[in-house]
Structures are given as C-alpha cells and as structure tokens.
Amino acid sequence: MASNILNLAGYKVVRVEEDDHDYHITADVLRAAAACTVCGSSRIIGHGRNQQVIRDLPMHGKRVGIYVDTRRWRCTDCQKTFMETLPAVDAKREMTDRLVAWMGVQSMQRTFASIAEDVGLNEKTVRNVFRDHLAGLEEKFHFQTPEWMGIDEIKIIRPRCVVSNIRSRTVVNMLDNRNKTTVARYLTGLQGKQSVQFVAIDMWGPYRDAVRTVLPQAHIIIDKFHVVRMANDALEKIRKNLRSELSLKAKRALMHDRFVLLKRRRDLTDKDRFLMDGWTKNYPLLAFAYELKEDFYGIYELSSSAHEATRRFDTWHRSIPPEVRKAFGDLIRAFQNWMPYILNYFKHPDFAKDPVTNAYTESLNNLIRVTHRMGRGYSFEALRAKILFTQGAHKHELKRPKFERRRTPQTRNTSFGKSSNALEFGYFNKSFQGVSGTFHPQDALASKVNYGSDINTLVELLGSGKL
Q: Domain residue spans in the chain?
C-alpha cells in the first residue's frame, strides 16, 4: 500500500501515517538534481536538506500532506546554492500540480470555504488558486466582438455590468461595476472594436459616454424594454395611490388588479376584460392610465420611422390628462432627454422584424440571480466564471475568411499530361479523396469563432443542475 498510495511519478513512498482526518505520507524524490540551475554546471555537491510539506489531492475523504526532505545543492563552479526542483509540484505553491488543477475546477462549482475545508488550506489560498485558474481561462477563450452589442446591468450586492452579443444571444463579459472608466477600459481592449455597429443600453449616462468615447462609429440605441417599462411603472404609481385611499372592502374588489392592469390588451382573457370593465368604470383614473400605457406601447409597435415615432409621442404627450401627468412625468422627461438615442431604434433597417434590443437578456439576468442564490458564498468573480466559462455553454461557428483575389494566375499539372486550371480540375466543386478521408479545400481556411456563453444553453444547464 505504501508504494502505490500516491500514484505520483517521481516519488518513492517511505512511510504512511493516518489519523481521523489526514494522511501524512513521507516520500523521497527518485532523481537527484543533475546540474546547477544557475550556470548549468554538473559539478554540484550536497549542501543540506530542508523538509517541505506538499499538499495533495484528498484521499478517502481525508486531507493529504507529503513530507519531502528537499535537498540543497552547491555548485563548485559558480558557488551558488539552490534547492532541488520537486517533480509534479506547482512552482508557486507547496502543492502538487494535480491539486492546483482540481482546486481550479472545483472553485467554479463550490464555495472557497468548502474547498479549503476539504484540502486543509485557508480560504485565501483557494481564492488565489481560483484567480490563477480564471486567468488561464481568460487567456484560453477569446470571444468574438459583437457587431450588435448589448450593455445592461444586474444587481449582485451592487450594480454590475453585463455585456452581450444581441445577434447570437450570448453573454461575452460581466464587469465588476458599471462606472464609465470600467466600461471604457473594457471597450478599449476589444479586438476589432471598429466592427461594432449598434450598442443597446439603458438610460445610464456612463454607458453612453463610454461608448461615444471608445466606439464613435457605433449607433447608440436606448433599449426598448427599459423605455416601455417606465409606462408600466407610471401605471403602478397610479394604482398604488388609488388603493391607498380605499377602504379594505374596496381593496378586496380590486384583488389581483396589478397582474391584470400590467397585461397588454391583446393578452387579456375574457375574465380579465370583465374585471377591467368594472374597475375602469368605478375608477376612471385607472382607465386613463391603462389607455396611456397601451398607447405608449403603440409608439413602438405602430411607427414605421423615427419621424412617425416622434409624431406619435407628441400626440400621446398632449393626450395625458392633468390628473395623471405627474405619474407619467419620469417617462416624459426620459423620452425627451434621451430622444436621439431612443429614436435610433427606428432608424435601424428592418427594426420591426430584427430589432436591436436587450429584452431577451432579462432571461440571462434571471439566470444569474438564480445561480447567485443557489451558490451562497460565491464571490462575484466565481459567479462570473461560471457564467462565462462553464464547459459546453459556448456558441461556436466555423467562418471562412473573406475572399481575396489571387495576385497571379496559377495552373495545376496533373498526371493526365496537360495543364489544368482550378475550374477544369473541378477545384471549386469537388472534394479530394485521400487516405485520411475527404478533404474540402475551403475547410482548411475556416476558423472557429466563439461568440460567448449561449443564454439558452446556460438556462438548460441550470435546469439540469449542471451549472
């Protein structure tokens, strides 16, 4: 048992001691140092020993420590002393490479405190290993810069910034905060940032300022979802104010009113219409507010151009009765203050069928919230890593490079005794059969593009308990 318990090349197990919680394994290094690490000379002599305790993967539910008498050597040529390098041990830490790798993977799935308990290290060490693991993932995966970019936010302890690819419906980054400096730094570091055409944001000044500074060619669009939501908020204010003045009996007559009033008219059931009819007759302000909410949605749904959207907004604005104008004040001011960027929504070609909007990212935000709740103790960095780098969540596509005209005509000589150009040989419409199978010339130049973590896939992984 002693000779095989470690299963770690380069070591010979000398003794194994066991208690209720730990394995204490004494081992010798099989191969001694052969040359000086400073000058490379082979003329080295022993210069003492120093015992090191190397942490290893847990075994049988117990923590593992490997006790190694590490030898110190002195070079007779350069007179320098050095410690021998231990095989399979991380250069930065007194841990085996396999323990570091295991901790990195586990830190994406568990809390740092639970991992520290399993391996017998402090939580700070686990956090440092996680950060190195994350740096490796950042280096390994490079996401395609979105042509249609979404910048939204989610509150995890404090507001964080979420960057998405609107067309591919993927998340490409999560930033620690939503400050202009942080967002601008991220945008500045994007490869191919000049390819960004549209950026959908909410009405947060630092987002706009960062995009205007770093991506001057991009059209900023205020996300439709955030604008129309303010119409619902105005209706909510009126509903709550009305309920606050009613008796308990009258409030009961308005039971479930919020859920009905926030529905679109086209989604009302027969029961909803019956309830709505009674409420609006008894409380005319609710009728005004509901119609104004529906009419505001109509600005987006019925306008075919920015000019028509402006005209419809002006008409809607003038139709607001004085009794409810205050409740809609935030929406009016927001539309007027951000009008150029709101109207950009209608300037995008084919906006009715293929809009530039962050509306679908609400499912992403809900996913992040659920993941955060399920993993109490997760740091923001760990949560971000789970969303961005979970195995199997990335959306890929093979892309062929742009066609470039050949500089000089080329011919191909074949065994048939005559020259044959690409068309005669069937280069563009045939595959070459070889020993290893069919070869398509275009495939050799195709590159794999990573668009980021697919939101639908993340939702499926969460539902199956794999996230």
A: 1-89, 231-347, 395-453
